[in-house]
Amino acid sequence: MAARFDAIVVGLGAHGSAALYNLAKWGCRVLGIERWAPGHGNASHHGLTRITRQCYAEGAGYVPLLRHSFEAYKTLERESKQARADRRVPALELYLQTGVLNIGDPLAGDALAAAQAHGLAHEVLDPAEVSRRFPGVAPPDGMRTLYEAAGGILRPEAMVAAHCQVAAFHGAAIRTGEQVLRWAALPDGGVRVDTDAGSYLADKLILSAGAWMPKLVPELEGLVVPERATVGWFKPRRPELFAPSRLPVWLLQLPGRPPFYGFPEFGGEPGFKLGAFNERGAAVADPEALDRAWSREGDEGPLREAMAAVFPEANGDLLRFGVCMFSGTPDGHFIVDLHPRHPQVVLCSACSGHGFKLSPAVGLAAAELARHGRCSSFEVEMRMHRLDAARVGHAQALARFATAGP
Ligand SMILES: Cc1cc2nc3c(=O)[nH]c(=O)nc-3n(C[C@H](O)[C@H](O)[C@H](O)COP(=O)(O)OP(=O)(O)OC[C@H]3O[C@@H](n4cnc5c(N)ncnc54)[C@H](O)[C@@H]3O)c2cc1C
């Protein structure tokens, strides 16, 4: 049995890597365990691009967390440069500001409400103005767009790697290629974590396993639901209109459809990339059995519909596709809280398709919960992400926590 750690973090994706980073910077003796190698494509944080923005249609309550995260992107970039200086390898660029278009209501209206509530810079544009500024974009008549200049593109694999690098620089132990099989609360108030390679002890445990959370915490079954997510890369008919200098990142709401989102051609990735939020029903019974096959009708069809409606010059040949997973909750918000029976364990599940950009704030919140039992930096803002019988689906889960064994 290895020596006891102050804390163990299980799952070094978006949020686990950020939690590890904070704990290590505070001088904690911390271990991070990740099932696959860094940069792997099996979970929710791969694919080279993530959108970040602050005029947040998902709720004005996220804005303070986003403000913190935007500052943290810069800090992390600087720190990863320092951490890598010794090894003379290039620093990781994490963020590119391109601006964000929120096209169509209720998306644009909800983003506007968040902007007004927090005094964020924004412009409301009509379709003609959108097309004048961004000639690859042609919203239908009457469709309102909110433009936010501050948003842009994050590089997810680089950001996870940077959090891990800086954590290691501050002394974190990191074990990759090691799968956590089970964990147990100990009578002395600590935890034991068993992997396919050994066992570890710690005072505190953060579980941040993304779509695998219900495997490690069965009480979350039905509350954190792995969902199939698809993205496609298409060869634009006029590529010059889809460079980052001509096109911001965007979100699109077509009437009666879940939102779409996408990117200019970026970072050596060929093609115009876009994705849909859960067009195919999407719940995945077992993340190990994710259907990774591409359906022309079910997956490609809706993406072509979105391009035909608003980006007609992008609607060329399919170059590449990707299938991955969201971990969704019924209300679309996160679950970041202490385990109801074992307060030495932090549950950290922050996806619903929009969590990556918030990983600096969520990672800090999870680390504070582990260290102090409360989240002092965002006491108010993180309340909406607690387990709470008033949230959809939570009463049933809390009942399972209350009745489940030790
Ligand atoms: C296609 C797609 C597009 C998205 N677009 C955006 C976007 O534009 N903007 C945005 O903000 N967010 C976006 N998101 C959401 C964002 O990527 C997720 O919110 C985020 O990755 C979730 O982080 P996580 O740490 O919870 O899970 P993950 O990032 O999936 O990390 C979980 C980690 O746990 C590991 N793990 C699981 N089980 C075990 C085990 N037993 N032992 C050890 N390790 C284990 C996994 O291997 C994985 O590395 C998108 C997600 C997807 C899928």
From TrEMBL:
A Pfam match: DAO
Cofactor(s) listed: FAD
Keyword Flavoprotein: yes
Domain (FAD dependent oxidoreductase): residue spans on this chain: 6-369
Signal peptide, first to last residue: none
GO molecular function: flavin adenine dinucleotide binding; sarcosine oxidase activity
Top-level class of the enzyme under EC nomenclature: oxidoreductase
Domain of life assignment: Eukaryota
Keywords in alphabetical order: FAD, Flavoprotein, Oxidoreductase
Cited Gene3D superfamilies: D-Amino Acid Oxidase, subunit A, domain 2, FAD/NAD(P)-binding domain
EC number(s) on file: 1.5.3.1
Annotated PANTHER family: FAD DEPENDENT OXIDOREDUCTASE DOMAIN-CONTAINING PROTEIN, PEROXISOMAL SARCOSINE OXIDASE
Record NCBIfam families: PRK11259.1
Record family assignment: Belongs to the MSOX/MTOX family.
Official protein name in the record: N-methyltryptophan oxidase
Organism of this sequence: Monoraphidium neglectum
